[in-house]
């Protein structure tokens, strides 16, 4: 039995869980009533596996629920307490957000954007990013935000797939004191795309940019826009956004989320998990380019009229105290971050956080990857001073919102460091074996979700078939998230990492296939296999094994640099391997499949195990040798 921690917030609503267990459909029906609808729904759930429609016939608008409903009581309330990386700050009220969003919605209309059109957003972490998102939602345009660390080629692929006719970007963004030239990246990305009609450019860094005829400055457009714009009445299943995410196949998948179900999921989980109160100051460190930033920065806090801190830059810039100084400055009460960030803060030592006043904190959360128990305990003691519950929230881009998490706003249960505890009410989760049969307690297996839930993706953009195969083909009528898990004797879930070929580096999802196809597109590379090995801070880092075309003469250092640069320009720097190894062949099965398990074992210094299905055992020996030599050379360099 692992250690438990009981920290209650005085909330206990068993009744809600009982109702959910009894009938999840009418349970969610009741939850949805807490949002503002233009017209009620006729049917709560239309489930034609694997396609679910929630609140059929109801009409709703996300921007209306985020802003209009708060105006009477909260127009003076801070919506965003923004901190620039360079120390600037802005206090954006609900009233100002409302006016900005309506203006921006009119800007979009003036550029010819109509309901259902796609708009690509490539902006730094500034309030205008949320204005853009809510502006799209107001008129029913589908936003597709691209993380500002992605490269021109990644953007090109995504703009091509979504056929966005308008792009919103900035001249630049600040990262570690340097200017990231976002507009230049967009220019490069869309140079051969003729369907992009307009590029809106926010001036953030005032670096030199070139403006073509399709480019327009944000300020000029906003100055001429009216701030009167009613929210469009949209059907509950109207697509709200596309967010591209890596999977096991080459191309990123466009995860498509709807409106009514998604908002219901966010509204409920934000209340249950964060126990949100009017007086709270919420701070989620996620970049809006990822799903956590979509759900729990751009939408959920607004649904509750909450105040949140938004930070523009790197968490350790200009030094290791930045995060804690932000918490102190804005009197943050709820802090939501990643295990990677926590591992980094922990390495910096206790003296830094101890020198700040963190006494306003009352609830802590983590997301994105498994949290090591010792890091959990450090978070609990050093940051939370043993008085804040920690919510370890498990979910995915596809699930829209949390599915497994402690819910201090709903009930108090003992917490176990490293476990997400139980599923949220109204969600039916279990751990099964290869055949789909439920596994006994304490047995590692595959996580599945047995019934539809309101935040679930509608489909993959333009690809219903892939949606069916990726998520619904392993087990009939059950959603397969691709994660290993086990359920312990107390019914607590432990999430044990990816069961497929998706890596999690610093909490970011990277598909091995996407990365391999990028490496193989280098002119001298014949084959490649990448895998993840554990890293003290990032959780996992990437190593790549590369086979070159016959007869290629190369300097391994130079070539490794070239390949890394290629990955940086084709995908983005988050996907660059920590190490690239050159070998003459890769270990494969007789049917030609690369045995990634073996590469991983070698990279992890583990026993290799059964290799009887290998086509050529010499490949393993070579991979092992190359790896060992490299390790030795690192050691001798250190000495
Ligand atoms: C992993 C991030 C363990 C998991 C919101 C999942 C986690 C993937 C946790 C989704 C957690 C997320 N404990 N693992 N609390 N939260 N994961 O789409 O492997 O970027 O499938 O969404 O992150 O990553 P994504």
Gap from first CA to last CA: 42 Å
For the largest beta-sheet, the strand count, sense and barrel status come to: 7 strands, mixed
Count of helical stretches: 20
**Second-tier CATH architecture of the domain at 501-612:** 2-Layer Sandwich
What coarse outline follows from CA principal-axis ratios?
A: globular
Hetero groups bound? 5'-O-[(S)-ethoxy(hydroxy)phosphoryl]adenosine
Regions with pLDDT < 50 over 5+ consecutive residues? Answer: none
Q: Trace the largest sheet across and list its strands.
A: 5-4-17-16-18-19-20
What's the β-strand tally?
A: 30
Helix content: 25-40%
CATH topology of the domain at 501-612: GMP Synthetase, Chain A, domain 3
Overall mean confidence score, pLDDT? 94
Write out the CATH superfamily name of the domain at 501-612. ANL, C-terminal domain
Question: Over all CA atoms, what is the radius of gyration?
Answer: 24 Å
β-strand amount:
15-25%
CATH class of the domain at 501-612 equals Alpha Beta
Helix/strand class: alpha/beta
Question: What keyword list fits this structure?
Answer:
639 residues, alpha/beta, 7-stranded mixed beta sheet, 5-stranded parallel beta sheet
